[in-house]
Recover the amino acids of this structure.
């Protein structure tokens, strides 16, 4: 199968923050816990987008963000002038060794060209005792119920191909040298759209989520038609249909040992 085209995040940037109106829940708490556990003074988010998660950590720390999209970075600069931002790729992180106390990415690892390379680089960029956190969807766990998968054929299978399994990522973290690697629950999106409410979901437009951005215009239109047909069918029966968006975001966390293994 040929590789999928990249998501055009420069075009998505202006509407990107709309997805945060309903969550997800628990992500900020996990990031704050990780930062507090190492009393982080210097924090790096790789794939920082519009700086939403970095802005939740502001206060008494030096915050760095890297993203490939200049449009996303422009949004981050507008949101918080205190951020240290640079344009670049996760495969080539332009920072000094042992420069950070905490490195993380949120819902971005699927866009990195080789998660193993990112994890190895993160290990080198962390000071001894520093923490790495990778937070995002894992469709391989088969825990999610999302109407996008139901009404847009192929999106679930495509996500299985795009997203690395959390078990594989934990193994890569251990191989890179991280200790105490664990999968932590608590971050999730839990929302039900009743009937026509779904048409107001910020995700439900062509650039609302990478799953939909990767569809052709015809595929996206066909999916919308299926949703409208389901709404019409429920109305004809005098009932209401529920469109679930129940998505877990496991957090994979590992710590760089204080001393190198002998």
């Amino acid at each position: 199968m040929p590789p999928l085209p990249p998501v055009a995040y420069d075009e998505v940037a202006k509407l990107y923050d709309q997805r945060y109106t309903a969550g997800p829940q628990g992500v900020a708490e996990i990031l704050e816990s990780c930062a507090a556990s190492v009393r982080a003074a210097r924090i790096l988010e790789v794939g920082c987008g519009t700086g939403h998660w970095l802005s939740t950590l502001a206060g008494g720390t030096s915050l760095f963000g890297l993203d490939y999209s200049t449009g996303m970075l422009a949004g981050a600069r507008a949101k918080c002038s205190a951020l240290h931002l640079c344009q670049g790729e996760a495969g080539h992180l332009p920072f000094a060794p042992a420069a950070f106390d905490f490195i993380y990415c949120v819902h971005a690892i699927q866009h990195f060209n080789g998660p193993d390379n990112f994890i190895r680089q993160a290990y080198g960029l962390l000071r001894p005792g520093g923490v790495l956190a990778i937070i995002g969807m894992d469709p391989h766990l088969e825990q999610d119920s999302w109407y996008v998968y139901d009404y847009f054929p192929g999106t679930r299978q495509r996500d299985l191909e795009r997203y690395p399994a959390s078990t594989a990522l934990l193994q890569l973290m251990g191989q890179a040298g991280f200790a105490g690697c664990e999968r932590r629950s608590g971050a999730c999106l839990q929302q039900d759209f009743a009937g026509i409410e779904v048409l107001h979901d910020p995700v439900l437009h062509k650039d609302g989520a990478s799953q939909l951005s990767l569809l052709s215009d015809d595929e996206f239109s066909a999916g919308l038609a299926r949703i409208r047909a389901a709404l019409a069918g429920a109305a004809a029966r005098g009932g209401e249909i529920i469109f679930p968006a129940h998505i877990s975001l496991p957090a994979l966390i590992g710590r760089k040992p204080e001393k190198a293994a002998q």
